[in-house]
């Protein structure tokens, strides 16, 4: 229990920090990118290597910000009844181009007549983005991501996101969601931390099943009704 408390404290602090910083970085970033493009177009010498590095580093900063941008709009947490399949469809539309390039297919299955969920739609979308991005990234040679949304029982909906990637070793499962925990050379270790925090705020749970060499399933379990 102590360990759990400490984990959620860290989540809270890092989340607050993210909220303060991410939004403020977005605008100067956009302006930097614009001016660098102008500069590249107007210099006579060939600095393409330098411009390549600058652009790729700016893109990296941008992807870090993107992973926790929703937390950066403190005023915008509006909980309402929403169709979770619609949110997932929007997310898939957003990621399909990237997935196609990597030969990854995103397949969505869902039950008809699913009840609406009491949620903050932008935040849930952020969770779906972060978990789908991981699923795509774990299959460098392509494969399928299968998304399944159904009623778990009369009180909960379960969203399962399954990949065919290399899986997660059992002893690493408990590290998921830890701030800055990453096994990727250019990872941030922020995507899951943010996702756990958002699901926690929805009074939901994340459960992970993984078989090394076969794949991983992230189950997001969300209460249907307005929480007390
Ligand atoms: P990042 O993607 O930047 O590394 P995340 O917080 O999104 O940060 O993920 C943290 C770590 O969790 C990843 O580096 C990876 O080791 C592990 N992980 C997350 N999703 C998966 C997955 N679908 N398959 C295998 N490992 C995963
Ligand atoms: Mg990630």
Automatic annotation (TrEMBL):
* Location of the Histidine kinase domain: 20-226
Q: What name does this protein carry?
A: histidine kinase
Q: Please give the range of the full-length protein represented by this chain.
A: 499 to 726 of 726
């Amino acid at each position: 229990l102590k360990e759990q408390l400490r984990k959620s404290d860290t989540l809270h602090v890092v989340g607050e920090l993210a909220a303060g910083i991410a939004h403020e970085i977005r605008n100067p970033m956009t302006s930097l990118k614009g001016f660098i493009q102008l500069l590249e177009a107007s210099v006579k010498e060939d600095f393409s290597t330098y411009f390549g590095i600058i652009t790729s580093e700016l893109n990296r900063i941008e992807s870090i910000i993107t992973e926790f941008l929703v937390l950066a709009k403190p005023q915008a947490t509006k909980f309402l009844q929403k169709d979770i399949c619609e949110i997932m469809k929007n997310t898939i539309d957003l990621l399909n181009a990237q997935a196609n390039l990597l030969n990854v297919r995103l397949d969505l299955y869902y039950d008809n007549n699913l009840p609406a969920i009491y949620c903050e739609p932008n935040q849930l979308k952020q969770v779906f983005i972060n978990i789908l991005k991981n699923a795509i990234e774990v299959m460098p040679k392509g494969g399928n991501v299968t998304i399944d949304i159904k009623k778990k029982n009369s009180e909960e909906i379960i969203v399962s996101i399954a990949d065919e990637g290399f899986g997660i070793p059992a002893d690493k499962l408990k590290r998921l969601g830890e701030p800055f925990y990453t096994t990727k050379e250019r990872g941030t270790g922020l995507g899951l931390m943010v996702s756990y925090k958002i699901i926690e705020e929805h009074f939901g749970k994340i459960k992970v099943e993984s078989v090394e060499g076969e794949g991983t399933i992230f189950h997001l379990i969300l209460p249907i009704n307005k929480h007390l």
